[in-house]
Every structure is written in structure tokens, then in C-alpha cells.
Structure prediction request, 99 residues.
Amino acid sequence: MDQVEIFKALSNKTRLQILNWLKDPELHFPEQKENGFENGVCVGQIHQKAGLTQSTVSEYLTSLQRAGLVTSTRAGQWTYYKRNEETFAALSQLIQSEI
Prediction:
């Protein structure tokens, strides 16, 4: 776990908002409910909700993925993202024990 990479990824309001949305995708992305959330949330849904350019949202998701905070799954032409709860647990433990 690269602590510096994680805290850099967390230092942006929109990236934090994306992580919050992905924590409860059923609530924040109801339009995807019929397709399910087993692979995560489609990048197009995240892009639409964020209201930013596709390239900016992709850059933010790449930053979160590089930090290990989200994982991605490709399904055909679509990419789905979900939170990596193992990283959040490790980060919580780090904060409690070392910071």
C-alpha cells in the first residue's frame, strides 16, 4: 500500500465524492439497478453524475485505481468500477496504528 499515492488520490473533492457514490451504488446509481452492480458502476454513469468531461473522470478513476482505492472490470466496451474495501480496511488500520 503506497500511503502517499492514497493520500494524493484522496486530496480531491470530486474523487472523494466518487468514492462516496461507489460506497452505496444502489442509492447513487439507481438507473443501473436492472443491470446489477456485481461488476461495479459503469464509467458512463459516473461520468454523467460527476458532470465533468469524460477525460477528467477517467483521469480521476485512474488515480483512484493506481492508489488501490477502486478496482475496474472490463465487460465488452464498458468499464465498471467499484471500491476496493480491502484497501479501505488497511488504510483504517494504518491511521489507527501509525498516524
Q: What stands out?
A: DSSP finds six helices and three strands in the chain. The chain has a mean pLDDT of 94. The longest helix spans residues 85-98.
